[in-house]
Amino acid sequence: MLRKTFEHEIQQVKDDVLILGSMVEQEILVSVETLKKRDIEGSRQILELDKKINAKRFEMENQVMILIATQQPMAHDLRLLASILEIISELERMGDYGKGIANINIRMGDQPLLKPLIDIPRMAQRGADMLHRALTAFINEDVETARAIPQEDDEIDGLYNQIYRELMVFVIQDPKTIERANWLLWAAHNLERVADRVTNICERTIFIATGELKEIDSSDDEQRKLNQNPD
Amino acid sequence: MHILTNYQHHTNDNSPINIDIVNLSVYYGKFRALAEINLQVHEKQITAIIGPSGCGKSTLLRSFNRMNDLTPSAHTEGEIRLDGQDINATGIDVVDIRRRIGMVFQRPNPFPKSIYDNVAYGPRLYGVHRRSDLDGIVENSLRQAALWDEIKDKLHQSGLSISGGQQQRLCIARALAVEPDVILMDEPASALDPISTLRIEELMHDLVKNYTIIIVTHNMQQAARVSDYTAMMMIDEQRAGNIIEYGKTDVIFTNPKDKRTEDYVTGRFG
Amino acid sequence: MTHFKELITRNLSARSRRRKATNAIILSLTGLVTLLALIPLFWIVGYVILRGGRSINPALFTQLPRPMGVEGGGVLHAIEGTLIITILAASFAIPPGVLAAFYATRNPNTPLGIILRFSTDVLSGVPSIVIGLFAYAVMVKPMGHYSGLAGGVALAILMLPTIIRTTEEMLKLVPQNLREGSLALGAPEWKTSMSVLLPAAANGVITGFLLAIARAAGETAPLLFTALGNERFDVGMILRSGVQAGQSVWQIIGRIVNQPVDSLPLTLWKYAQQPFPERVEQSWAVAFVLIFFVLLINIAARLWIESRKRRLQG
Questions:
Q1: Closest residue in chain B to residue C198, using alpha carbons only
Q2: At residue A153, does pLDDT exceed 90?
Q3: I want to staple A211 with a disulfide (CB 3.0 to 4.6 A). Which of B43, B202, B255, C77 is the partner?
Q4: ipTM strictly over 0.95?
Q5: Is residue C109 part of a domain?
Q6: If pLDDT is split at 50, 70 and 90, which confidence band does B5 have?
Q7: A224 falls in which pLDDT band (50, 70, 90)?
Q8: Rounded distance, CA B213 to CA B243, Å?
Q9: How big is the A-B interface in CB pairs under 8 Å?
Q10: CB B261 within 8 A of CB B245
């Protein structure tokens, strides 16, 4: 078959995407674990992992640029390589969210958690799972799955709202808890953003397979739009 | 205007058409080289014809200016309408068709005459003999071909004494000198070095403001760089050439509709 | 894989030595044989120069022959005769020859084209004396007298196959896309042939002409029954008397071509057989002139081609 070398290099880049993805999954899950267990040392290790993720992302970007320059990709190949650049950028940001949670843990220091973490870990599990399946859909160019996954964002948003309300109750009852509530809210917010970025990855998968580039709106976006003043 | 196509056809814009090919078939003796070609060429745009070797691209190109007539065994069926008039109809003046549709060949082919006489050859055929008129035409054509500054002091030197890239631009100037409407280019840069190639491509961008250009090329990147529309050709089971997809170049190279086109532009064809 | 490498590279140095030796032997052999082939040329030319050079004097070129047995005189009549017949022959042979070559190149497979090429081949094999006889039958007999015109016609027939064949070969060498370039501009076929193809093939075609002319200038047999020979032929005198008598250009030309003329080869043939030693000496001188003439034509052809090449390369 023609372009064996090129095919081989594309396959390597795709494998790297999966590797990067699993590093990010790990960062998210472990950062929440260390927060739950108040494992400060563990959180510091997360910061190290994040550096590795950033380095790998730049390495992959370089690799893709070389392929574009030297192989004149067209049509499907072009869409694939251009999308990979986007996807690794999204993955890197997701990694940053995990780093944010690790930082929260470190800055909380000796202060105890406001409440035992239940929903936040649940958000992290769901988000990591969505990411994992989204990357599988990317490798297989599975358009149906890629269209379906963004729907699960609603569930994540639901969890976020729940956490929000709970934390508000705490703060209303005892205003001195506002700082610690804030930390937890911020962590939850990060995890909600992770799910949004998974949606972007799904959009890219659909683009690679079909050439259509469209935003997939989840229902909370719809809601937010409706809540804005209709002009 | 009709849309009689049996292939993926997605130019669907309203820019004007000046050449309309209807059910064109070209035979060499009993062998059918082109099978029922249908194509509309947009005016003052660059249309590229791509496809693997032997798929009939050059045969199609040469149909536009009836150069296939020079092959004794060739015969043509179907219509090629230039501004509404079928150029294959009986009674049509071939000389006039060839004036209106000029051609630039793969290997530069300047005549063994001076540069001036090369460019003036065409106008002289059409009765222009006054020196002042010819001077004007020669300068105008050479300027349009981006060659004037380089050779304005060498007009009386032989057309063969300049470099390959310059010779090709001279051939372009020669074709422009008779005021054509359409310029056909058969792999115009394949015999040239990369810098000359890029110059010719720049030139095409300038020329297309005033002329319809149709280019056959086996260099896909060139087709992608240069053209507004691309037609993809392939041979069928009877080894006759067909157009399998025709659309805006951007789409053909980022998201073609036919798998065969995809395989060809990504280099997986084989 | 290394097994093959071994096969190829074994005994390299011995082979190399053998190769060099073989090269040297073959090269020397070729050189030797070439020299052998050149011997007749140098011998002939050398001998003619030596033998004929003795009798070269200005009178040879400016005077008419003296009566037999008398010393002195020249071969002006033969020189003028050769020039006139050659010019006539070239004028008769070149236009139809070139046109026929064009036709044959463009239509090789039509009946006429096939007949043309076949006839050309046959004609080139016809003995020159037969051609002379033919010219006698169609020109001398009806006209009632020998003439330079008939001689010119005979030589033209002789030249025709060479001209057709050379022109055709040269035209075939012109790249096809030159013709296409002209036709694509809207030029008709004949204009393309005249303005583009012929100039492109000119070098070879002109060489063909000159070679045909050189050959014709040296022919004797066809002139035996046509031009015959004329020791009193003097163009200068014809011109003077014609002008005095107020004749038109055509009339003067008519007088020149309508009488028997001599040519250099013909003169050589006659003189060499005569019992008079002066004539025999003069025949050697004529040989000298002839060879010189042929040499001149070839050199002129070379120079012309070189200068044309230089002009075209800019």
A1: B112
A2: yes
A3: B255
A4: no
A5: yes
A6: low
A7: low
A8: 18
A9: 36
A10: yes
| Domain presence at residue C100 | yes
Query: CATH number for the domain including C209?
Result: 1.10.3720.10
Whole-angstrom Cα Rg for chain B: 19
Of the candidates B107, B122, B154, which has its C-beta nearest C185's C-beta? B122
User: What is the rounded CA–CA span in Å between residue A165 and residue A168?
Assistant: 5
Per-residue model confidence (pLDDT) at position B3: 45
Report chain A residues whose CB lies below 8 A from the CB of B253: 74-75, 78
Helix residue ranges, H only, A114-152: 119-140, 143-148
- A touches C, CB cut-off 8 Å, minimum 3 pairs: no
Nearest CB partner across the interface for A75, out of B221, B266, B270 = B266
Q: Which two tokens stand for residue A101?
A: 């949670």
Which 8-state DSSP code applies to residue B210? T
Q: What tens-digit pLDDT sequence spans chain C (314 residues)?
A: 678 888 888 888 888 899 999 999 999 999 999 999 999 989 988 998 888 888 777 777 777 777 776 777 777 888 888 888 888 999 999 999 999 998 888 888 889 989 998 999 999 999 989 999 999 999 888 888 888 888 889 999 999 999 999 999 998 888 888 999 999 999 988 899 889 998 888 888 888 888 888 888 888 888 888 887 777 777 777 888 878 888 788 887 888 878 888 888 888 888 888 888 878 888 888 888 888 888 888 888 888 878 877 776 65
Task: Please indicate if any CB of chain C lies within 8 Å of the CB of B9.
Answer: no
Q: Is B245 exposed, middle or buried (CB count within 10 Å of its CB: 0-12, 13-18, 19+)?
A: buried
Is the CB of A74 less than 8 angstroms away from the CB of B265?
Answer: yes
Q: Which amino acid is at C158?
A: L
Mark residue B23 as left, alpha or beta (left: phi above 0; alpha: psi -120 to 50; beta: remaining): left
Residue C24 lies in a domain: no
Answer whether C195 touches B (CB < 8 Å). yes
Instruction: Please report whether residue C301 resides in a domain.
Output: yes
Structure tokens at B260: 């065969």
Chains that touch B (3 or more CB pairs under 8 A): A, C
Check A73 against B268: CB less than 8 A apart.
Answer: no
pLDDT at residue C181, rounded to an integer: 95
Q: Which residues, numbered 160 to 189 in chain B, qualify as contacts with chain C under a Cβ-Cβ cut-off of 8 Å?
A: 160-162, 171, 174-175, 178
- By Cβ distance, the residue of B99, B105, B171 closest to C186 is B99
Burial of B229 (0-12, 13-18, 19+ CB in 10 A): buried
Q: Which of B229, B249, B247, B176 is nearest to B206 (CA)?
A: B176
The two structure tokens encoding residue B214: 């149709």
Domain that holds residue C241: 56-313
Number of domains in chain C: 1
Taking residue C236's Cβ as centre, other Cβ atoms within 10 Å add up to 11
More confident residue, C210 or B6: C210
User: Is the pLDDT reported for residue A62 higher than 50?
Assistant: yes
Alpha helix (H) ranges present in B4-51? none
A224 — contact with chain B (CB < 8 Å)?
A: no
